[in-house]
Amino acid sequence: MIIGSLVRVASNIKRRPATLEFPENREAITDNYRGIHKLDMNTCIECSACARICPNQTIVMVEVDVPSKPSGKGIMPEINLERCLFCALCEEVCPTKCLVLTKDYDFEKFDRRDFIKRPEDLE
Ligand code: SF4
Ligand code: SF4
Q: What residues pair up with 117 in beta bridges, in sequence order?
């Protein structure tokens, strides 16, 4: 039993470390990975479909400055990443495909309020 343990320790010493030095080293992301949203405010038609379909009430429509719109304002999605399930229903339902999920997963925060992303933060 002791010999078995020593053999296991010796073989583990030869193996690569199981953890990576994040963020310098990162695992490859799978093709179907879903990360932080990206919003194109110029093509959002302010329909609220994303907010209505969201199963976790993650999206709130908020007023935002949009210089490209005639009024200079828009009502667009604000996303609380802390509540997000990354299910991609919002992307699926978006009629203009201006809201998509990227492969970006790097959004660790110290303050919970920083998980709330206003429309301009998602561009
Ligand atoms: S990915 Fe899913 S949970 Fe997250 S905001 Fe979109 S619909 Fe809501
Ligand atoms: S992001 Fe898409 S679904 Fe959401 S309000 Fe804009 S156009 Fe509509």
A: 79
- Ligand 2, atom nearest to 39 Cα: 1
Ligand 2 neighbour 79 (Cβ under 6 A): no
CATH class of 29-122: alpha beta
| Nearest CA among 44, 99, 43 for reference residue 75 | 44
Tell me the CA–centroid distance for residue 93 and ligand 1, in Å: 11
**φ, ψ at 76 (rounded to 5°):** -135, 165
Q: What is the pLDDT of residues 94-110, one digit of tens each?
A: 999 999 999 998 888 89
Could you tell me which of 67, 77, 11 has the C-alpha nearest to residue 38? 77
Domain boundaries, the chain: 29-122
Query: Tens digits of per-residue pLDDT, 1-49?
Result: 788 899 888 888 888 777 888 888 888 899 999 999 999 999 999 999 9
CA 79 to centroid of ligand 1, rounded, Å: 8
